[in-house]
Known about the structure:
Blueprint: E1 8-16, E2 19-24, E3 27-35, H1 38-47, E4 53-57, H2 58-63, H3 69-78, E5 83-86, H4 92-100, E6 105-108, H5 110-114, H6 117-126, E7 131-138, E8 141-144, E9 149-150, H7 155-164, E10 169-174, H8 187-195, E11 199-203, H9 209-217, E12 222-225, H10 227-230, H11 236-244
Parallel strand pairs: 1-4, 1-12, 4-5, 5-6, 6-7, 7-10, 10-11, 11-12
Antiparallel strand pairs: 1-2, 2-3, 7-8, 8-9
Amino acid sequence: MEIRRDFRVIPAVDLKEGKCVTLVGGDPGKRIAEIEDPVRTALGWEKKGASLLHLIDLDGAIEGVPANMDIVREITGSLAIPVQFGGGIRTVESARSMLDTGVHRVILGTLAFRSPGAVEELVRKYGSDRVMVALDFRGDRVVTHGWTSTTSLDPISSAKKFEALGAGSILHTNVDVEGRLKGIPLEPILEIVASVNIGVVASGGVSTLEDLLSIKSTGAAGAIIGAAIYTGRINLEDAIDKVEGG
Length: 246
């Protein structure tokens, strides 16, 4: 059965040391952009038409506990649009805290792989739409712990597993092309979209409107866009109009 998915262009705000940053391949030493005011940045993307914000605590992803919570709370309290948040959510209690204090959807990475039952528990309490699992991959293997640990798991079997556990969506991040502005390979997206019946949001490497349209053509539910809008390669308003409305 074919499931219709309304495609979303989703701007990213990645937090590090209290700033909004864009990294190459997750490497803290390779920054494409650095902005002092993440809250103003988030409000700007909302003003330009974003219907959802992708908010990541990079410090939290590395340290294992959310580290920029004052900014996260200010952003969720200031925006009218929903926010999906990830980075350092390593316990069910942490996920609950985020969902109870303004975040619409939590993105579970390391926690989901370490304790799959946490996905089921959160889905039972909050519903599948509010639980997304991050399948970050390098080559053909899933990486966790802020992309610092490579597992023996492949994205396809992992996606099927978490769909069965009730997750409402998958964040599919190609670490090899993240932040490099060189386009995004479509085959991995096509494969994972074909393997599950829940929404797949692609991330990593988007650099042109054509990239977004190509991702949309795979049947994905959306695409995260970061470096391309921070460097001016893509105008977010144009992307929303031409890709979401196309």
